[in-house]
Amino acid sequence: MPQHRIPAVYMRGGSSKGVFFHARDLPPAGPARDALLLRVIGSPDPYGKQIDGLGGATSSTSKVVVIAPSCRPDCDIDYLFGAPAIELPVIDWSGNCGNLSAAVGPFAISEGLVQAPRDGLATVRIWQANLGKRILARVPMVAGEVQEEGDFCFDGVAFPAAEVVLEFLDPTGTDGSVLPTGRAVDELQIAGLGRLPVTLLNAGNPTIFVRAEALGLSGTETQAQINGDAELLQRLELLRAAGAVAMGLATSAAQATAERPHTPKLCLIAPPQTYRVAGGKQVQAAELDLIARMISMGKLHHAIPGTGAVAVAVAAMLPGTLVNQLTGELAGRQVRMGHTAGTVTVGAQAREVDGSWQMEKAIMSRSARRLMEGWVRVPAEG
Description:
Layout: E1 4-13, E2 16-22, H1 31-41, E3 64-69, E4 77-84, E5 91-92, H2 98-110, E6 120-128, E7 133-142, E8 145-146, E9 164-169, E10 186-190, E11 194-203, E12 205-211, H3 223-227, H4 230-246, H5 253-259, E13 265-270, E14 275-276, E15 282-283, E16 290-296, E17 299-300, H6 306-317, H7 322-327, E18 335-338, E19 343-353, E20 356-366, E21 368-378
Helix pairs in contact: 2-6, 4-5
């Protein structure tokens, strides 16, 4: 039978890549759409390579995005993010990709979904449908086209590009709670690890913070060291799954592992240290407020997820969290965090009201580029 031919755009956003679709070109949300998108990406693949699809066999490159005009008066477009598992027939729709958020505005403008000025900055109002939150994207325009070339650089991406500034408005959980248990520090009992202090945070994406030293790590380990240690990864997943249950995101650890591989994220934090990243760059301790290493889809992320950086910035604002204990009072400046590929700074704005903290927004810069456009082909039985 002939293959399905579906309009699609392959885009880089921040340090991630994904396949972008118009909602109108896909089946309605449900098993049929999931099956089609899994086939596009090349999952499930027992070999773990996604050879027969557009996925890149990492958590940063196995991603899909569905875009539609928004019916909300305060937004221009609806943005839905999916994280296909590599070896399992599962797409996790529970969270956002902060890096790919940078590509949503440029996609919407280039596809004619949003009007933009001929020159200057276009503001695209995005409804992040997974989390029920708003994002503002400031997209540079030149001669009626999205500007992609530029001199903005950040660690984790090899080439410079034009800067896209993102504002994540009210980035806390859908119920407005930033600390789902109401405590800055909780304790989780984990088989093989004992009783561990953690901070459970709901901002950007749900995130579990733990001190690297509590796991016998320095926080400066390389991707190869972490991802090559199957026993360590298994223990980290036990911790992540237990955190999901404690946050009310899953009824059991088994459900969290099987159905929510994308969220919550697990972040290993450590005090500032001098270390060397991939490519030979040396990060100086004096440049940092802390080190943050994210476990994403079961592996150490090659840089840091955008939503992970947002979560770090929010946690740094909250007195008593494990992150705040490392950073101390920042006096309103952005958090300087070291990650697997280098460094990044992210800011958060908050205010205390009647003894509780209200997060107003988190701000970060990324870049985006359209890599390929046309049609993706999927076998008819897919």
